[in-house]
Amino acid sequence: KPRSESPNVFDDGSDFPVEVSLVPWLAGEQGWVIAAVRDVTEQRALEAASLESEARLRQIAESVDLVFILLQLEPPAYLYVSPGAQRLVGITTGSPADADLTTAMSLVHPDDRAAVERGFMVDSRAGRPAESEHRLLTDDGQVIWVRAVATPVLVPNTSPERTVITLEDIT
């Protein structure tokens, strides 16, 4: 069904957006068009507020020397990896889909890997709070110490589906 949006003007001169939907209808030999007009002012205001909120969060994530990771628990997948990951360890974060849990564990220093896997990773993947201080390997071969903190994203009356992980350089 054809749909379009257009601005309209109140008597006081202020404008408001409407969505117009058209549906053809036949009644015997007679053809008609049914039109539905809907004020979408509130929807557009919510969209603008959401874009502004996203822009503010992006400014924070891009400005601090922390790495923010949003981890989906089932199936395990990175939903977001902040640009701080490139500054911290040198990996690019073009798309969260480019990162995987195996790659993340390969950044952990070999001497710390088993302990991180048994403790921090098991708890964070299970949606439990976790904390760890361990070494990471940067893309240029340096060893840095990080503090990793996993915080489950709590939704009332459900078990956590996501976890926020922060990494901070404590070298």
Topology summary:
Blueprint: E1 3-9, E2 15-27, E3 30-39, H1 41-63, E4 66-72, E5 77-81, H2 84-89, H3 101-107, H4 110-125, E6 130-137, E7 143-153, E8 162-169
Antiparallel strand pairs: 1-2, 2-3, 4-5, 4-8, 6-7, 7-8
Structure description:
It is a single chain. By secondary structure, this protein is of the alpha+beta class. The chain is built from four helices and eight strands, in the order E-E-E-H-E-E-H-H-H-E-E-E. The strands form two sheets. It has a five-stranded antiparallel β-sheet with strand order 5-4-8-7-6. Strands 1-2-3 form a three-stranded antiparallel β-sheet, covered by helices on one side. The longest helix has 23 residues, at 41-63. It is elongated.
Poorly predicted regions: none
Please tell me how large the radius of gyration is. Answer: 25 Å
Task: State the strand order across the main sheet.
Answer: 5-4-8-7-6
pLDDT averaged over residues: 85
The H-and-E topology, N to C, reads as EEEHEEHHHEEE
Strand segment count: 8
Structural class: alpha+beta
**Which descriptor suits the 3D outline?**
elongated
- Alpha-carbon distance between the termini? 60 Å
**Helicity range of the residues?**
25-40%
Q: How many DSSP helices?
A: 4
